[in-house]
Each structure stands twice: as structure tokens, then as C-alpha cells.
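Minutes, methods subgroup
Present: GH (chair), OT, SY

1. OT presented the first of two proteins processed in the latest run. Sequence and C-alpha cells recorded below as shown on screen.
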Amino acid sequence: MIYKTKHDRLILKAVETKETQVGRIVLPDLGYEKSSTYEVVATGPGFYSPLTGQFIPTQYQVGDTVFCNKAVMNSLGEVDGVEYFATRDNEPLGYIVDDENED
């Protein structure tokens, strides 16, 4: 399935969290809340600033892993057991960068 979105919107899907091991200590995912880590599935091109009229491109690319608060996302439902969400480009709190390709 191909997803497309408009303006400065992102479509995200949840990334499964795993148990983390530090030395011999296992830190399990206790399941208090669903993952706040998401993979970007689709991005819009960007938007024109209402103040300056300047085009502001989307800062994320398909495949990026972002951290986002679930309160600012809209659920798009499930497809093949995977839940998808939509949010604006400025809502993610951060993203993961490869050590080799740091921005």
C-alpha cells in the first residue's frame, strides 16, 4: 500500500520496543503505554508560511524514526495489524540519527 499526504503532514507507524539489556540487567518493556517511537511512512512536501509566504519543506524523510507524544497524533486505523497515525511535521520531539551520518 502506498501512502501520500499533503502539506506538512506525516504518516507514522509504531515501532515495536524490545527488552533492553545492560550488562546482566534486563530492562523489560513494561507496557505502561504503547511505544512513542514511530517510523515515518509518508511525508507531505511542506507548506507556505502564512507570515512570510516562504515555502518551508518537510524536515523528515520516509524511513526516519521519530519520537512523538501520542496526544498530538490522529489515529488512521489499522491495516494488516499495523496502526497508522497522522501528525504535523513540527510535532515529533526528536529523531534517531545514525552515528556515521549525524546532521
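2. SY then presented the second protein from the same run.
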Amino acid sequence: MKLNALKLALTGGIYLAIIFALATIAGIFKIPGFVELANFFKTFYGFYGYSITWFGVIIGAFWGFLEGFFHLGLFALIYNWLNKDK
């Protein structure tokens, strides 16, 4: 069985965009555990405009989408490559 790489990539992008956005919103409201997660995101994406603000929700969702799209798309391509004999 082959995976549809584009559909899996889009699914991963949408999923991580939602996760990044919700984690940032939870960080804004200082929900325990999420402030640390939002700060973790800020460590990687702060240079690219991410912050724990309402604007950061949009930036975080953008970067989450790109990360999910790339990583799950790559996963599907590798899976299909390894499964090509069947």
C-alpha cells in the first residue's frame, strides 16, 4: 500500500499549525506547562518572528504548517520508497 504523500503532508501541516496556535494561545493565558512549550517554540522560531503574542499565534501556525508539511511529506516519500517492491 502506498501513501499519498501530498495528502499526508497537508494533514501534518494542518495538524501542527493547530498545535502551534493552541500552544501559543495557552502560553498567552499562562496555562501551566504551556508557557514552557511556547518558550521552547520561541527558542527555535523567535528569530523568524515568533513570539508569545496574538501575532505570534499566526506566525506559529505558519511555521507549524511548514514543519508538519515537510516532515510528514518526507515521511510518506521515504515510506513509499521503502515499500516500492510490493
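Chair's summary of item 2: Residues 5-82 form one domain.
Next meeting: continue with the remaining queue.
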